[in-house]
Amino acid sequence: MRYVGRFAPSPTGLLHPGSLVAALASYLDARQQGGRWLVRIEDVDTPRCILGADVALLEQLRLCGMVSDAPVMYQSQRNAAYKAALGQLIKRGLAYPCGCSRKDIEAAQAEQGRLKQRHTAAVYPGTCRNGLQGKAARAWRLDVQRVIDTLQLPTPLQWQDRRLGEQTQDVAQEVGDFVLRRADGLWAYQLAVVVDDAAQGVSDVVRGEDLADNTARQILLQRALGLPTPRYLHTPLVFGANGEKLSKQNGAQALDLSNPLQAVNQAARVLGLAPFDALAALSVPR
Ligand code: GLU
To answer: Does the pLDDT at position 189 exceed 90?
Structure first.
């Protein structure tokens, strides 16, 4: 398979030292394997996007020597492709409308004795799987068990990470029927990422380890849509002084790019690379 890699930031803030690690890893992996490297702006969650952050992110990448090998794809332009994918799933009976509010879901979970653990996503109890029961449709969900049964997929789902090794997840039990289109009409990350990785011919997803947990869901969706599954490599996270993972959500400082070489070398160190290795592959302004 011809190597195509990608970096897919959400324009909800600027790059921070943690996201630079993922960007650098995907860039270097693509270069080392003689492949192409693409940037995709994941701006589907419009309420969380910051105006102008896309341009600023691309400029930060450029300062670090990383420029997309093809015009940058914007998820906000991809409505038709997501709609077609959802339509395909609905037609095959693999997606269903859901009329539950968050409160309904919590009440049904409590009834089933499945109390939501802190820091975990709530497992959808399947209330609308067999019909809306008079409720108005709000969101669309994937019928995970039906996908597994129809395609005769093994449970739990196993996949190989190039750094973390063999991974397993029982998506029906641990995640449940996840959302494809949200109640507010926005496309869910899982659907958009799977459709776009396939549309861009991505052979290798290299991204932060905090996203590893999404991979089984994405593989299920790829199978349901008849799309190829890329190879996956999840990169080490960067932790702040308080021991928490650096992320835009917990207020990580934007990268100081007054000295791009220093920032790139710091990211290279997290990847276990000698500074020279990174610099040789990048066209960082000296
Ligand atoms: N847009 C996602 C984020 O910024 C990354 C998606 C991905 O790499 O699969 O967290």
So the answer is: yes
